[in-house]
Write a structure and sequence with these properties.
Largest sheet of chain A: 2 strands, antiparallel
Low-confidence stretches of chain B: 1-10
Order of helices and strands of chain B: HEEEHEEHEHHHHEHEHEEHH
Helix content of chain B: 25-40%
Shape of chain A: flat
Number of strands of chain A: 2
Distance between the termini of chain B: 15 Å
CATH superfamily of the largest domain in chain A: MetI-like
CATH superfamily of one domain in chain B: P-loop containing nucleotide triphosphate hydrolases
Strand content of chain A: under 5%
Number of helices of chain A: 13
Mean pLDDT of chain B: 89
Low-confidence stretches of chain A: none
Largest sheet of chain B: 6 strands, mixed
CATH topology of one domain in chain B: Rossmann fold
Oligomer: heterodimer
Number of domains of chain A: 2
Shape of chain B: globular
Number of strands of chain B: 10
CATH architecture of the largest domain in chain A: Orthogonal Bundle
Structural class of chain A: mainly alpha
Chain lengths: 324, 273
């Protein structure tokens, strides 16, 4: 019997019983909630940053303006925090990517069975450590043992013309520096990039490996000339995921970067990142302008990550289409 | 019902009078938990097509992969016995696996082109050998694609992705890729099982022409195919311990029309398998 011939009560029961309408509504609402949330957050950041935007204009994020961060005078300028985010994330990425790829290749292609399982869970464990623990470990172990000696070793580069501004010492004895934050970030994004890249490599069909091997490729040639090109868009996704994590990481960075609004470009000096300045100051922000300035930094961070995600999507889609 | 077999007298002549290219001697392959093939003796004659037939799971592919040491890639696989290539045991200590695989090429069941251009697919092997000169590579790519009967279809789109070709074209691309290495022997593991009938026919024609320059060993599920294209046939069966063993080997015409073993007759007349 056709459902439309039944009385309405039965028809309604029919729909609910089989769940079509109900499911559709539920799923639509869930999907819409995502869009709604993003828009709501963006809107709130926009509205609440209005005083700051009106007072400082584009100078707020402009690199070539004299940096100030003075809550007493209600004068704010965000470039040092933006620079801190960019430089720490960039250093972290440059150091973490080769290391992570090495781990991924080893786990997926070279590790003997008895080593693979424990190493795999190790990588996942590294990813699961709460960031506050990384921060604590960073302060008491990593900064004094690694960052301070490394900073001292890098100080001579401060006299090299051109790149000198990035290595101006002296390194603080505590080790609270942008370099310290960057190196903690390396450890934090390493498992993310490694685990995702490993999954990408493992998802490559065995027939690709066999094809390469049957043509007389060595293991290395198979990895470099077939597997990595095959997995490049996925690996790129992993890298951007790592970059996103690095730029958004808050707790551990706040604990080791030294939280100084000072300008300058040296990685051997304390600084701020966008995330750390918000985390460190929102509680003490007394004036409306201070709050508004922090909101605007939030807006910049939000826009930057959105842009990054869009870029990642575009790269992945673009490359995938080209290949198909 | 007797299958229709298209075997003519010249193929018997073709089956004889050729030198030995490879020889399998008392070969057993064991996987981690089970024996895959046991005690196989089999000659492979130069410039001839050898078909390996048999029911599913009887170790045809395992035997084929033993001929260029592709089984090395499977963890826990162990090989006993010898496989001679021009009289030399490829499993002897000190043999260079990479070199063996260059001399004994392989085409797989499913076409597996690399996700790169047609040109780069074919040039992959020569580049591994260190060839960089464009004019030389161009020549190799063209010759290989011609030999694989694909040149006419792709010569104007050498830059397009190999994965954008049809299934049959992809398989011919894989054959061209193998030929570009100038191997001496080409192993084919059910190369047409993933293809439609027309593409299958093209590949079969191709195999007929390739044997002028290469020695070919082909695993096939399709008995008509074995009868059509091969000079020699090896029939494998699975023993009660699930390991494959050689039941009968001979010129294809003999195996199909006048089998020595009852089991072979039962298989080719479709009574089992």
């Amino acid at each position: 019997m056709n459902a439309s011939h039944r009385p309405w009560r039965q028809r309604l029961a029919y729909h609910f019983q089989h769940g079509d309408v109900l499911w559709w509504v539920l799923l639509f609402l869930s999907a819409f909630a995502i869009v709604g949330l993003v828009l709501w957050i963006a809107w709130q950041l926009w509205v609440q940053s209005a005083p700051s935007r009106h007072a400082f204009g584009w100078n707020f994020i402009w690199p070539w303006v004299k940096p100030v961060w003075n809550p007493a005078l209600d004068k704010f300028q965000a470039w040092p925090a933006i620079y801190g985010s960019l430089i720490t994330a960039a250093i972290a990425l440059v150091l973490a990517v080769p290391l992570a790829l090495g781990i991924a290749i080893f786990l997926s292609e070279l590790a003997p069975d008895w080593l693979r399982a424990p190493l795999n869970s190790m990588v996942e464990m590294l990813a699961a450590i709460p960031s506050v623990v990384y921060g604590l470990w960073g302060i008491y172990v990593f900064l004094p043992l690694v960052v301070v000696p490394l900073g001292k070793a890098l100080e001579p580069l401060g006299h090299v013309p051109g790149i000198g501004i990035f290595f101006k010492g002296p390194t603080p004895a505590s080790g609270f520096t942008r370099l310290g934050a960057a190196l903690v970030l390396v450890i934090m994004i390493l498992p993310t990039i490694a685990a995702v890249s490993r999954d990408v490599l493992q998802a490559i069909p065995r027939s690709q490996r066999e094809a390469a091997m049957s043509l007389g490729a060595t293991r290395w040639e198979t990895i470099w000339k077939v597997l990595l090109p095959y997995g490049q868009s996925g690996i790129l996704g992993a890298i951007i995921l790592g970059f996103g994590r690095a730029i958004g990481e808050t707790m551990a960075v706040t604990m080791v970067i030294g939280n100084s609004a000072g300008g300058g470009y040296s990685i051997l000096k304390p600084g701020y990142t966008m995330a750390s300045i918000i985390a460190n100051e929102f509680a003490e922000a007394v004036s409306d302008m201070h709050t508004s300035a922090l909101m605007e930094i939030g807006l910049v961070l939000f826009a930057l990550t959105l842009l990054l995600n869009a870029l990642a999507r575009w790269l992945v889609v673009n490359r995938t289409i080209k290949r198909a | 019902m007797q299958p229709h077999l298209n075997i003519t007298e010249p193929s018997r002549a073709a089956a004889t009078a050729s030198s030995l290219k490879m020889e399998v001697r008392h070969l057993s392959v064991t996987y981690k938990t089970s024996r895959a093939v046991k005690a196989i003796d089999l000659p492979v004659y130069e410039n001839r097509v050898l078909a390996i037939i048999g029911p599913s799971g009887c170790g045809k592919s395992t035997l084929l992969r033993a001929l260029n040491r592709m089984n090395d890639l499977i963890p826990g696989a162990r090989v006993e016995g010898e496989v001679l290539l021009d009289g030399e045991n490829i499993y002897a200590p000190g043999q260079d696996v990479v070199d063996i695989r260059r001399r004994v090429g392989m085409v797989f069941q499913r076409p597996n082109p690399f996700p790169m251009s047609v040109y780069d697919n074919v040039a992959f092997g020569p580049r591994l050998l260190g060839l960089r000169k464009k004019s030389v590579l161009d020549e190799i790519v063209e010759q290989s694609l011609r030999s694989a009967a694909l040149w006419e279809q792709v010569k104007d789109h050498l830059g397009q992705s190999g994965m954008a070709l049809s299934g049959g074209q992809q398989q011919r691309l894989c054959i061209a890729r193998t030929i570009a290495m100038e191997p001496e022997v080409i192993l084919m593991d059910e190369p047409t099982s993933a293809l439609d009938p027309m593409a299958t026919l093209t590949i079969e024609d191709l195999i007929q022409r390739l044997k002028e320059n290469y020695t070919i060993v082909i695993v096939t599920h399709n008995m008509q195919q074995a009868a059509r294209i091969s000079d020699f046939t090896a029939f494998l069966n699975m023993d009660s311990d699930r390991a494959g063993y050689l039941v009968e080997f001979g010129p294809t015409v003999d195996v199909f029309t006048n089998p020595k073993e009852k089991l072979t007759e039962d298989y080719i007349t479709g009574r089992f398998g």
